[in-house]
């Protein structure tokens, strides 16, 4: 996999080149870019598989460049590498597949490159062309030890609240976020429905309902081994949703 490095700081570019040199199957392009404008030109000429992109650069910033790059016929996967953690939402607007915080660690970079290499270029192009805007931009941003992790909304199976945090259970694992369940319910009501004061589940993952010998109700979701508790007052709505699926 060919990687293009885009950063206005020579030392940052050198460090990334050194780190990538220690990872098998990834090769850094000889040419580098120090701004978004040059990054677009190099993508057009050399068609890298992955772009590691800084955000704040002269001439043209990384976010604007990524939007142009995502519109190419064969767009590379873009992973942002930045010292700022407040651009995550704009990053996924620009179709980024990863977001690393500086100073970048070897293991985090390795994981980001592995994830980016799994994104099929044709899939990206198809998403850009066919999905409605609110779905194409559908991600949950979670701040983790690896930086800002963007979880595609289509991979989320359910949200579970516990005190001040919410756990996002998705197909690749789980992450903690500090959004409230109420906010998530308001923002994503077309995809998720509340089943309990502490849980939202994916509507199209609902499989069945059951009741134990004490009268407690449970909901079963596809791809989720354990049943989840459901409040009795939410059962009628869930049954109605199941009939419409």
Can you put this structure into words, describing what you see?
There is one protein chain. The chain is of the alpha/beta class and 245 residues long. It contains 9 helices and 15 strands. A hairpin with a 6-residue loop joins β14 and β15 (228-230). It is elongated, with a radius of gyration of 21 Å. The relative contact order is 0.09. Residues 120-128 and 130-137 have low confidence and may be disordered.
Search tags:
alpha/beta, single chain, 245 residues, five-stranded parallel sheet, five-stranded antiparallel sheet, 15 strands, elongated
Number of strands: 15
User: Which range best describes the helical content: under 10%, 10-25%, 25-40%, 40-55%, 55-70% or over 70%?
Assistant: 25-40%
SS strand fraction: 25-35%
Total of DSSP H or I helical runs spanning 4+ residues = 9
Radius of gyration: 21 Å
The assigned structural class equals alpha/beta
Query: What order do the helices and strands follow?
Result: EHEHEHEHEHHHEEEEEHEEEEEH
Distance between the termini: 41 Å
- Kindly report the oligomeric state of this protein: single chain
| Poorly predicted runs of 5 or more residues | 120-128, 130-137
Rounded average pLDDT = 84
Strand numbers in spatial order across the main sheet: 2-1-3-4-5
Report the principal-axis shape: elongated
Major β-sheet annotation: 5 strands, parallel
């Amino acid at each position: 996999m060919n990687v293009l490095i885009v950063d206005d700081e020579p030392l940052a570019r050198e460090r990334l080149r050194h780190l990538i040199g220690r990872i098998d199957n990834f090769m850094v392009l000889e040419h580098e870019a120090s701004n978004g404008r040059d990054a677009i030109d190099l993508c057009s000429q050399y068609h890298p598989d992955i772009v590691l992109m800084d955000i704040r650069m002269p001439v043209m910033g990384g976010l604007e460049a990524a939007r142009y790059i995502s519109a190419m016929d064969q767009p590379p996967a873009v992973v942002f590498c930045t010292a700022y953690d407040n651009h995550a939402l704009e990053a996924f607007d620009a179709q980024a597949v990863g977001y690393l915080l500086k100073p970048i660690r070897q293991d985090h970079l390795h994981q980001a490159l592995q994830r980016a290499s799994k994104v099929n270029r044709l899939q990206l192009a198809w998403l850009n062309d066919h999905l409605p805007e609110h779905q194409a931009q559908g991600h949950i941003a979670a701040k983790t030890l690896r930086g800002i992790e963007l979880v595609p909304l289509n991979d989320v199976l359910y949200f579970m609240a516990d005190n001040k945090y919410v756990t996002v259970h998705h197909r690749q694992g789980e992450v903690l976020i500090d959004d409230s369940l109420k906010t998530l319910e308001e923002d994503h009501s077309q995809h998720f429905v509340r089943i309990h004061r502490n849980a939202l589940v994916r509507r199209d993952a609902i499989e069945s309902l059951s009741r134990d010998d004490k009268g407690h109700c449970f909901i079963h979701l596809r791809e989720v081994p354990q049943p989840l508790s459901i409040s009795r007052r939410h059962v009628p709505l869930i049954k109605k949703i199941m009939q419409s699926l």
